[in-house]
Sequence to fold (307 residues):
Amino acid sequence: MSKLSTQHLVTILDLSREDVDRIFATTREQKPQAREHRLAHSHPNRTLACIFHKPSLRTRISFEVAAGQLGAKSLYITDKEIGLGQRESIEDVARVLSRFVDGIMIRTFDHSHVERLAAEATVPVINGLTDLAHPCQILADVFTVEEHLGGIEGRKVVYVGDGNNIAHSWINAAALLDFRLVICTPRDYAPEASVVEAARSKGSLDLTISHEPAEAVRDADVVYTDVWASMGQEAEAEERAKIFQPFQVNDALLSHAKDEAIVLHCLPAHRGLEITDEVMDGVHSRVYDEAENRLHVQRAILHLLMP
Ligand code: CP
Ligand code: NVA
Fold:
């Protein structure tokens, strides 16, 4: 049974603030144990199905390793196998998979497919990225901020780039937790209004949408960026590279942030586009700690959600 208030993690809005506290408390407890190879197997004889319709380094490896560290097996399934919604209905896939496995992690394009899977599955469904949201990433990011800055409360987090799945999940996190969020994008690439509205209706959201990078980054505690062309938008990459150039996270832009600001990027990074080598490899960067925390936070999520 789930030890959180939700059975599934489709977006961060599925969680309560207490759920986030619980995930982070479990992460803090398990992280040193896992690093020292002494974490007990809490989930032996369980199986996690990992469905991928897009490429992945971090999400795939961290979920498969996390499952193994809990004593569970993982299955890597691509779109060639189950043909979700094509070979058979999403609902039938959910019903059948629920008879075989103890959890489903899915990365796909259409967010509504994950919602439909979750609606019918009797085992937890975890969103490993859709075009709309990437909840596990931003939970790991918030955890990283807490580790490095001692808490996210009252901090100013500035996301500079495309109003994409990463921006959306930051907006969802800001609806739940007490920090100031600035999303700074080119005018035609702002986050979806429906995501902002849903987050506003959830709680007290301190969100500013900006189109002026230097102004946005002023006094930031956290500067965050992501690719300008997400998976599935490769054909737009060249056009976007021109439009997004003023939004590059480089030393000049970072000089507007606080001296002790940290820089995060969900990765993969396109060095020389949305972020420069100097910033990625510079003293403010925490991007590899952030990547490692995908493993620790997701292991906590599996630990709490899987029966
Ligand atoms: N950040 C992230 O989700 O990386 P992958 O696409 O490699 O999984
Ligand atoms: N916005 C990016 C995130 C990759 C982790 C994408 O969807 O491709």
Observations:
- The pocket of norvaline (ligand 2) is lined by residues 129, 164-166, 226-227, 230-231, 266 (CB under 6 Å).
- The chain has two domains: 12-134+293-305, 137-290.
- The chain is about 45% helix and 15% strand.
